[in-house]
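We modelled the chain as a single entity of 128 amino acids. Its sequence is:
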Amino acid sequence: QVQLVESGGGLVQTEGSLRLSCAASGRTSSISAMGWFRQAPGKEREFVAALGWRTRTTLYADLVKGRFTISRDNAKNTVYLQMSSLKPEDTAVYYCAASTRGYYTFSIHRKPEQYDYWGQGTQVTVSS
């Protein structure tokens, strides 16, 4: 089992920045990748970014590329999502997720079905 706890959400103005954290505990040695997803009211959950746990390969949704950065702190087993140049359309509940599955191509981590464990979510609100 892997437990995930997100933090760092809040209210920020347009063009502001925010950093989300996701602390992993439990069987972290089984993790192959971590991802961030978000879900706005009335919309489906959508992919934001992913990071290979050992390879450090990164993947971003086109909507956030160049504005968001996913990274990892090895010592703390924590994954971060640094968000800059935030827009009102970035408002959503942000979820981190952990995958323990193998893969042939890293792009599969755009799909929520690839992930086994999910955090509780943290609200990000960008005011205009």
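As a brief sanity check on the tokenised model: The longest strand covers residues 18-26. DSSP finds no helices and eleven strands in the chain.
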